[in-house]
Every structure is written in structure tokens, then in C-alpha cells.
Design goal:
- Helices cover about 60% and strands about 10% of the residues.
- It is mainly alpha-helical and about 280 residues long.
- The strands form two sheets. It has a three-stranded antiparallel β-sheet with strand order 1-3-2.
- Helix 8 packs across helix 10 and helix 9 runs antiparallel to helix 10.
- The chain is extended.
- The N terminus is likely disordered.
Length: about 280
């Protein structure tokens, strides 16, 4: 007789099952808790960033508004205070400006050294009295040196003095050259015959003779008609006068160089002279 013994199964203790369930619950519960906390932290950071950016934009807008208000206020202040400026009265000697000492050297050609020695008193007198310049003759360098001084009041006095000495060196009379010191609209113009037409030998001599005329008659006629002064120095021609008068004299001389007869030049000068008289009236 066979006796079967029932198989005895191990009875699980309730404590072990609860422990396993607790572990599973704790493991399953921990993970979502961490995830949720991270999500909450990220949301808070985003909210904080948005809040900070909104605060920054608000501050910038307020600063811009304040800057606009300041600019508007500044403009209003300037508009209100735009009145005539009041300056204090100047001292009696404050308006006088002291010029720096400047020097000019005007070379004198050899053929004008003897005339300048004779007329030296008439040359340095107007320079010192009218313009207040200091003048001396440098014999070694053969030039006249002029410079400004304390008595020089006009800024263009040095240039006027240089033009005066240069005019005398070119061959003009002292009395004619003094007009450069007294008048402001007088100029010097120089050119050569070869600038108009290339002439050589007898042709060049005849051109010079046509300009001068018999006993200087043609030259004097041009001077009186155009109110200028002309100097014939070999092939060079120097004219002193106003701008318009220099143009009239130069046109007459150019026509003589090109070969036109003196009678035709006289007729043109008469017409020009009559027009000048009508304009003067």
C-alpha cells in the first residue's frame, strides 16, 4: 500500500511580500517624482527668464522715454534762451593786432642800379611814410629789402611795397610807381613779343618800331587812350594800369605786332576811348 504524502509548498511570509511590494512601489514612485521636480524647475527657470527679460525691456523703454523727455526739455531750454549775446566792452588797445615781422627781397637788374641810387630818397620815403615799412639797400646782393615794423598797420602793405619797388626795377618812373601805393585797383602785366608771334632779325626790329612809333608817338597815344603806362624793354613789354585798361592797351600792342598799320590801331583806340567816356558819364 502506497501512501502519498502531499507536497508541502513553502508558505511565503507576509513580511517578505510586503517588502518586495514596498521596494517596487518606492522604485516606481521615485522616478516620476524626480521627473516632475525637474519639469517644475525648468518651468520656474523659464518663468524667471521671461520675467527678467520683461523687466529689462521695461527698463529700456523707461530709459528711452526719459532720454526723449530730456532732449525735448533741452530743446525747449535752448529755444527759450536764444537771445542776443552780451559781450563786455573791449579795452582801447585790444582791437589793434600786432603783425609778425615779414621780409621781402626785390632784385634790381644791373642797368637799374644807377637810377635807383639817384632816386633813392624818392623810393624809401613813400615806403616808410605811407606804408610804415623798414627799407634798406643790400649792395652785395643787389636787392632792396623791406620788412614790416610796429608802425605797419595794413596787412597788404608789404605786398604793395614790393610791387612799388618791382615797378621801378622794370623801368617805370617813380611818380608813376607811387600810384601803386595810393590806389588798390592797379596791376602790372608783362609779356614778350615772341608770346604773340615768333619773329627774328629785322622782322622783330620792325615790330618794336611799330609799337614805339616815331619819337615814341604810338606808345604815348596808346598810353593816353587807355590810361596806362607802358615800358618797352627790348623784346619785353610791361603795362601798368587797371584790369580793363591793361586789356585795351594789350590788344592794341598785339595788333601792331601782328602787322596792322598804326592808323587802324588809332581808329580802334578812338572808338574805345569814346565808349569809356560815355561809361564814365
Amino acid at each position: 500500500m502506497v501512501v502519498s504524502t502531499p507536497s508541502v509548498l513553502p508558505i511565503a511570509s507576509p513580511s517578505s511580500t510586503t517588502r518586495k511590494n514596498r521596494r517596487r512601489i518606492t522604485r516606481k514612485g521615485v522616478q516620476p517624482a524626480k521627473f516632475s521636480t525637474t519639469i517644475v524647475d525648468e518651468d520656474q527657470e523659464m518663468n524667471d527668464a521671461e520675467g527678467s527679460t520683461s523687466n529689462i525691456t521695461d527698463q529700456l523703454i523707461e530709459m528711452d522715454n526719459q532720454g526723449d523727455d530730456d532732449e525735448i526739455l533741452i530743446d525747449a531750454d535752448t529755444l527759450e534762451t536764444t537771445a542776443a549775446p552780451a559781450f563786455p566792452a573791449l579795452a582801447p588797445g585790444a582791437g589793434a593786432t600786432r603783425l609778425k615781422s615779414e621780409t621781402r627781397r626785390i632784385p634790381i637788374p644791373p642797368h637799374r642800379m644807377t637810377p635807383i641810387k639817384k632816386d633813392w630818397i624818392n623810393i624809401f620815403g613813400p615806403l616808410t611814410e605811407i606804408l610804415g615799412l623798414q627799407v634798406r639797400m643790400n649792395v652785395q646782393r643787389r636787392c632792396v629789402e623791406i620788412r614790416t615794423s610796429r608802425e605797419t598797420k595794413d596787412i597788404g602793405a608789404l605786398q604793395k611795397g614790393a610791387d612799388f619797388v618791382k615797378a621801378y626795377a622794370l623801368g617805370f618812373d617813380v611818380n608813376d610807381a607811387i600810384a601803386l601805393l595810393r590806389l588798390d585797383d592797379l596791376y602790372l602785366d608783362s609779356f614778350e613779343i615772341k608770346d604773340v608771334k615768333t619773329l627774328h632779325g629785322d622782322h622783330l626790329s620792325r615790330a618794336i618800331g611799330r609799337i614805339a612809333g616815331q619819337d615814341g608817338k604810338t606808345k604815348f597815344t596808346i598810353e593816353n587812350a587807355s590810361r596806362t603806362r607802358i615800358v618797352l624793354a627790348d623784346t619785353k613789354i610791361h603795362i601798368m594800369g587797371s584790369f580793363q585798361n591793361i586789356k585795351i592797351a594789350r590788344d592794341a600792342i598785339v595788333s601792331l605786332i601782328l602787322g596792322s598799320p598804326p592808323g587802324k590801331v588809332y581808329a580802334s583806340l578812338r572808338t574805345v576811348g569814346s565808349r569809356m567816356r560815355q561809361r564814365a558819364l
